[in-house]
Design a protein that fits this description.
The protein is mostly helical. The protein contains 17 helices and no strands. Helix 1 packs antiparallel against helix 2, helix 4 runs antiparallel to helix 5 and helix 7 runs parallel beside helix 9. The model has no long low-confidence stretch (mean pLDDT 80).
Length: 390
Amino acid sequence: MEWERKLAQWRAAGLIDQETAERIQAFETRQPKKRKLPLLLIIGLIFFALAVFSFIAANWQAIPAIAKVVMVVLLMWIFYVIAYFSEKKHFGHPIIFRILGYLMFGASLVVTGQTFHLGTGSSIVPWAMFIAAIAHFFIWHHAAFTVLGFISGISILVSAAPGLGLIEWLLFIAVTLVWFFLAKDGPVMIFSWLLLLGSGFLVWSIWDIDSPLVPIWTLFALVLLLLLIPKDKQKLLAPLYLIVGGIQLIVFLAIRGESDMAFVELTMPESIALAVAGIAVLALAYFRERRLMWLGVLGFVGFMLFDETAIALAIVAELTALAYLIIAQRQDQPLTLGFVYFIVVQFVIYVIYAWERLDMSLFFLIGAILLFVLSGIAWWLNRKKEGAVT
């Protein structure tokens, strides 16, 4: 076996003594051996399953209603039982059977609703799948159920968006917050955070609000989570906050530059309130996670939207991109996000202000010159810092 060969190599190289080698050998010998299913048996099972499903699909209309429900529920439990013995007897991959059981659970809900005309067209099935995915995650702690929970959560937001009520919206936020705080894994926190961000956008439909500033209000509300999570989780989520904030600023720049936004209501009191909230976010980030101080710039978007030329938004986007790159360079932080943000800002500005006025060759020439100048600045700052260290 592989571990025996390694053990002999370590013993011959003098990395471990004879007593340690014997203890490792005794430990590995006691471990249960993973059993592999024969290849022909696996192929046979696959073809048998395809034959069974093909027969069921061909005779689906002729099957009695109660038999359809019993059949799907039985399949669900069969997959869960196989997953149990797969883990117990160490054969196959238990997670695959559990995912199949989870999918059969959703299929049983759909079949039951369609068979007995219970009406599963709203958010009933997505809600059940969402809760089931979270329960599966806390029982088996596998990343697959994190992805399935996120997909189910998105399904709730999409399917319920036209007629979502306040109670259901608050319930979704409560369940997602519980998932966010109880989970210890980074991907779970990121996916649940994205679901909270998406739930904020439903304010447009719940209260019939035409304000374009709802995405910024949602992001500012999520900043309050920094008061309730430990420092390591703050560092994990900080890039996500910055990415979403940068995307929002670019989207506002693109929309304001290409339209008059006559389809929304923009009021000065709300712009003032957003500016105050931006200052509060700036102060909170200063004491909790200083990288998020960049989000304070979004608080003044309300004022900048009154500028029909979008010049103010363009200047702010350009300055934040350059300032972020310079500060990140001086602090030896990764520059990837900053460069991507800078390039996207240049592209949006070109499309808004220069696309119809410049020849295509001149368009790319100016872009190349800007990138060359920026690269030269970054090289000069890096050389200056290396010279100072030397």
